[in-house]
Amino acid sequence: MAVAAGVAIAFAPHLLPRLAAMGGRFIAMLRNALSRAGRIFMSLFKTSQARRIDAVADRLHDAWRAPRRLPGGGYEPRVKTTADQAWIKRRGTDQVDIANTRYKDLPADWQKENKESATVAVRLVDDASKRGADLKSEEFMESASESVHDAWLRRNGEWAPPEQKLPYQQLSQVEKEKDRVVVREALAGRAPASGQG
Length: 197
Fold this sequence. Notes:
Layout: H1 2-11, H2 16-44, H3 48-65, E1 79-81, H4 85-91, E2 95-97, H5 108-131, H6 138-156, H7 173-188
Antiparallel strand pairs: 1-2
């Protein structure tokens, strides 16, 4: 192909802009194909835990938007600004309606908090399971929920409202329930180990 292009340029230099445009389109198509192949390849090699974290984060997003469900379908809009440059480039805007966007289609910065919470909860569940803890007990639920809350505070304590800055034991039941939901979703996404219920 390179030899043919060289011959064409030598005998028909007026074709150079056309060949350059074709080459540019070919390179763009090749980059796109390699990018897609890379994403497919990476998804094949995700660990079981990474897949569970993604699934829990997805369910957490759905749980958050459930109360916003509208009678005619869709959700009450919640438009936010994203700094995810790749997402902006694909969509042509930095505005995202996070309520009407599925988790997997959210920009990375709007997936982050659910993914962080899911990571903490999945690891807590896995560690407790390895220790043989009773994952159905209230003691495990409260201990894990407290850990989820503590991790959330480390990430968000600077801006958190006063009622959420409290230690877990001092939170209202409404606030505690937010942390319990994270733990429940991590438990729901777990394949039961042999010998456990």
